[in-house]
């Protein structure tokens, strides 16, 4: 009989497992590998200064400045003045500071008007520029209305009192303050054709009306009016034609305070 081997044979199978744990690396992500963007290289360009272009620009700017300066310095050539009867053209030009004929563009219309209105005899003014070298000035005067003998002053349209004398009607006596403003208003409303015919005005109240005035006309007639009927004087020229035709150029008294009638003056008859 065959002898049995006393040595135990090695068991065949799986190799022994080590007691130490095995290290596992994390699984790789699936997909395309990431690309790193290449760094941009910035190239610095040095600009060359082009002196020719700079010179041309400077030359153009200089020429524009020179031409503008020449245009700005062009003086006023002609000044036209209208609407003035009290002040002369030269006086108005001097009041506006234009006697040296300054630059046209440098002359401001608002400034000229402001200077003119500082004068007592100028109520308002308009200034226009035309033709690039012409100035037109139109004056609205603060005209005198009458000379007040009791105050020894000339009364202007806006109520200002001045020392100068003018060819205007004279108020011979005192007029109450309560009637004075209304008298100025009524005189101002008269037509020029009638106003220039009045020589003197006298406050002449009666028992019927305390606002009555007698007016001596430069044609030799006398007119009675009240402050209520003052506007009737604007018909004086028309009435005078009828009187001359009817009374053969005789002088007399025209009553416009009560009704409207004419009385011929007899020789040596007082007013």
Task: Please write out the topology.
Layout lengths: L50 H22 L5 E5 L6 H7 L13 H9 L4 E9 L3 E8 L2 E5 L4 E4 L4 E2 L7 E2 L5 H12 L3 H4 L2 E6 L8 E6 L4 E5 L9 H12 L4 E4 L5 E4 L7
Parallel strand pairs: 1-3, 4-7, 7-8, 10-11
Antiparallel strand pairs: 2-3, 4-5, 5-6, 8-9, 9-10, 11-12
What would your notes on this structure say?
By secondary structure, this protein is α/β, with parallel strands linked by helices. Among the domains are: 64 residues, membrane protein fhac (Ubiquitin-like (UB roll), Roll), CATH 3.10.20.310; 121 residues, Rossmann fold (3-Layer(aba) Sandwich). Helices cover 24% and strands 22% of the residues. It contains six helices and twelve strands. It has a nine-stranded mixed sheet with strand order 6-5-4-7-8-9-10-11-12, covered by helices on one side. The chain has a three-stranded mixed sheet with strand order 1-3-2, covered by helices on one side. Strand 8 and strand 9 form a beta hairpin. The chain starts with 50 loop residues before the first helix and ends in a 7-residue tail after the last strand.
